[in-house]
Amino acid sequence: MSLRLQTQGKPLPSLTRSLLGRITTTSLESEIRPDHILMADLLPGQNDLRGYAGVLTRESVSPDWAEDLAQFAPAMIHSVSTLEHLQEGDVAAMNPNGSVRTLYRRGSRHNAILVTERCNSFCVMCSQPPKRVDDRRLIAQHLRLVELIDPTTEALGITGGEPTLLKKDLLWLIQRCKELLPTTSLHVLSNGRLFYYGAFARDLAAIGHPDLMIGIPLYSDIDWEHDHVVQAVGAFDQTLVGLQHLGRYGVPVEIRVVIHRDTYKRLPELAEFIYRNLTFASHVALMGLEMMGFAIPNLSDLWIDPVEYAPELVEATSFLAHRGMNVSIYNHQLCVVPREIWSFCKRSISDWKNDYLPECGECTVRERCGGFFSSSLQRGYSSSIRPIVM
């Protein structure tokens, strides 16, 4: 079951702009209150409300009481429907419409910042369809979020849309991650096209982030096939040049291949192409399809049972592994993958959208299995799903 990341309540009229804060359920010293959102089922005394970035409560506040409370806690959302999903140290955004959105979960290994919804590609299976919006102003919120994230966080993603459309703002965000989260690995998902401009790759490398990876998709060894998948003429050439520039400047890259009906046939040829032309890649991820976004209307053209492309998956995986390349299989269930390549399968689906079928409860390798996207359980999955008993 997917996890809740948003809740709703009633804002005080004095909450006029979106604000971010770390969730706390305990009274804090006054000097650190401005970084925190106090969360309480019932409101404490008025003096215990002072100085926080915001206040969340289940308690209902009458209009007369609201006017009085605004003097002590102007940023308040009351009558919140549920708070159970928010934990100490999480970071949430309180919005003037009364929505409360979780931006960071302290107890999760799958945190990411959605930095833009714009994109210069239009992939046929995109799980986050691009929007024509000017969201550059949100960079201030992203920078504030980095300030509030627990510095002991193991990993953080930067995603979109296409993050490189932020240009220098993306570089500044990565710089701040280096400064404020020095031990946090950073994984940026990009189509790689803007790294065609070598100066951009050079400037990224100059930041010197100690644990940075740029994940870039490549869908075919043939230019027009890749361009068809991303729906952008010339994208194949731009991506390849971008990858070469990143390699030249020593920026670690991950090649990501989403497998569907348009891409599975040439998996072995693509594997050889990657080995011969992109040997510097730190990682190659062969990924199952997520049935969200544009994949939904295109599902009849894209969906193929993983059992059907098992021969190509085995050949591509084995080819790369035998030549010393770091290769993994993402978003697949073990029962549809030949056992000879189980060791390459990873539990890669973010915890907030990861799920299993009832019959998976009987499976003795469930803890090693990647499971399903929640969206897949709604729209279809392999007919070969079965519990494995060992």
Features:
Glucose Oxidase, domain 1; TIM Barrel; 2 domains; 10 helices; seven-stranded parallel β-sheet; 390 residues; alpha/beta; eight-stranded mixed β-sheet
Structure description:
- The chain is of the alpha/beta class and 390 residues long.
- The protein folds into two domains: 95 residues, Glucose Oxidase, domain 1; 268 residues, TIM Barrel (Alpha-Beta Barrel).
- The protein is 25% helix and 18% strand.
- The protein has ten helices and 17 strands.
- It has an eight-stranded mixed sheet.
- β5, α1 and β6 form a beta-alpha-beta unit.
- The longest helix is centred in the middle third of the chain and has 14 residues.
- The radius of gyration is 23 Å and the shape is globular.
- The protein starts with 5 loop residues before the first strand and ends in an 11-residue tail after the last helix.
- The mean pLDDT is 96.
Q: Strand percentage, roughly?
A: 15-25%
Largest beta sheet: strand ordering: 1-8-7-3-4-5-6-2
Largest sheet data = 8 strands, mixed
Radius of gyration: 23 Å
Structural class: alpha/beta
* Spans of at least 5 consecutive residues with low confidence: none
| Average pLDDT metric | 96
User: Distance N terminus to C terminus?
Assistant: 26 Å
The SSE order reads EEEEEHEEEEHEHEHEHHEHEHHEEEH
- List the domain count as a whole number: 2
Number of strands: 17
> What is the overall silhouette?
globular
Q: And the CATH topology of the largest domain?
A: TIM Barrel
Give the C-level CATH assignment of the largest domain. Answer: Alpha Beta
State the CATH architecture of the largest domain: Alpha-Beta Barrel
CATH superfamily of the largest domain: Aldolase class I
| Secondary structure tally, helices | 10
* Helix content bin: 10-25%
